[in-house]
Amino acid sequence: MALPDFSYAGYQFGERTLPAEAAAHVFNSHSDGSVDVSAELQLLIDTLGEAGGGVLEIAAGLYRLDRPLLMRHSHVVLRGAGREQTKLWFRDGGGTTSANRANILLSPETNPQLQESSGWRVAEPAQANDRVLTLADTAGLALGDDILIAWQISAAFRAEHGSEDYWNHAELDQYKVFFRRTISDIQGNQISFKTPLRYDISLRDVPVVQQISGYLEGVGVQDLSLTNAVSLQQAWQGFDKSILLQMRYCQHCWLTGLSSYDQSGDGYEVRSHGIAIEQSVNVTLANIRMANAQHLGDNGNGYLFQLSAANEVLIQDSQAINGRHGFTFSWDFGASGNVLSGVTSEGGRICDSYREMQRNACTRGGSDFHHALSIANLIEYAQINDSLQVGNRHWLSSGAGQTGTLNVFWNIQGQGDVYAYNQGPGFVVGTGANVKVTSDLDVTQDPERYLAYQTQIQDYTELLGEAEQLVPQSLYRAQLERRLSR
DSSP labels for 74-142? Predict the structure, then answer.
């Protein structure tokens, strides 16, 4: 089976460099951290956005923020003087309530979500790698329209993927979005798009196309450090899942040159989650370090980089250190075409309680495919010093079930363990000498036996322990160069 073409990931499909505009305004008020500046910064962000966008540069210094920041207009960029120079200290420790968990939220005012009662019916099946869909009709669609491609989580779809007893978050026959695309051509009843489909589409599951609008576009946060760490006890006893920076419904946006940092001197930098990317497409994250989370407990805490129902996201040259999960594909269907290249995952720990964490009695965590079915994602040129896992998680995490298929692990280095149990085809190609890979379906010990349950086919493996012989060393870069040279 051919490998997917991952070259479409990232800002503007990887075809353009990130913008580098001059600052429209430089902010340097109360740069010693003595006064809350969240209201001043929020006003400047909103003013720039209402005027059509621009770069708000935050000068070197320490800035205290007692309230979250919201970036809700397109083409607004928040830029520091460098992550060693500009530091944002979110003193409240992670949003304000359990319903408002993010310290910096990039999200439009109106969310472009799936509407179950509308859409164009898909009239013919399609296969992975197709760039064309045939609809019952195309009246009302136009070039440049952003669309969602969704289908029902039917009983047959669940059974086909060994998850008839799981995926409890989705009602029977509920529609779920799998792909986010932009129409590039219309010919009769056929629509075309630039990025290929990542999975076969069956008429059995009543697939539809929906027209949406309202993504946040051209928004970036770059070149600064930030923290929301509090006392360890407060982190565990307050609300769950606080998020340092969250992107929702973003397209062609970016985060670069960011780092968490330790404000108090106790070694902690992030209260729970670091960066969360949700229901977004063609976003680039580069040169980012998220480290030393406080809350490593259950109920969705301690994820340093999280992708949820996101398409074609590129994460490059970034480090996840000392979280519960370093890089994770978590919660709901629709994570596909994402590329993690040159990343490092280490120090993952799973703690069942605050007391267990205090006693340093936690078990090993790591990076994983955590919930529902993530399709055709690439993790490559990576240092895995804890673990990397895809497989059947059964009833954990609200019935996570089978968590992946068609995912590719390419050139994996480090000292960690790789558990490769894609439900359908999967690939492990090229590993370092100290990486342990398990993909055998006949294992009797856990967690391998548990992960392998109802897996259809053993993952393909090649050049295990011989990654130095692998050509190319970066599959993503080779595919991108080949596509751009055509």
Answer: TTEEEEES-TTTEEEEETTSSSSBTTB-EEEEE--SS-----TT--EEB-S-B-TT--EEEBS--TT--
